[in-house]
């Protein structure tokens, strides 16, 4: 499995993130060469990828759809299945914030704002 965050900006990992996830700002997801680059760099040999944003209501699902569309245009070996993280990072971090195997960089003060 591989995690990909569809964030608003480059520093969208503030306050914590899913361990091993890659932050890919949402404005870059309109650029097909950028999506191809993400696939080439991060998804080779993966069986699934989980895409999310803060709540996985708009940006995350939109980015997941674009990723799946780009993957479907490729031939060759098996492609990863694309999922959207239900509840987004907000739901994930509230449940797993103290699990350092799943969340890194967690800042309690950030989430109390």
Automatic annotation (TrEMBL):
Q: Which Pfam families match?
A: Rhodanese
PROSITE patterns noted in UniProt: RHODANESE_3 (PS50206)
Rhodanese domain residues: 11-101
Q: Which GO terms describe its molecular function?
A: protein tyrosine phosphatase activity
Q: Which domain of life is it from?
A: Eukaryota
Name a single GO cellular component.
cytoplasm
* Gene3D superfamilies listed in its UniProt record: Rhodanese-like domain
Q: What is this protein called?
A: Rhodanese domain-containing protein
């Amino acid at each position: 499995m591989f995690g990909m965050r569809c964030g608003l900006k480059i520093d969208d990992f503030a306050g914590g993130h899913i361990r091993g996830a890659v932050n890919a700002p949402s404005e870059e997801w309109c650029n097909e060469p950028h999506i191809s680059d993400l696939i080439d760099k991060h998804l080779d040999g993966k069986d699934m990828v989980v895409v999310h944003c803060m709540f996985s209501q708009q940006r995350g699902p939109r980015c997941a759809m674009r990723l799946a569309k780009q993957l479907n245009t490729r031939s060759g070996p098996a492609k990863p299945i694309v999922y959207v993280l239900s509840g987004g990072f907000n739901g994930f971090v509230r449940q797993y914030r103290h699990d350092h195997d799943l969340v890194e960089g967690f800042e309690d003060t950030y989430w109390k704002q």
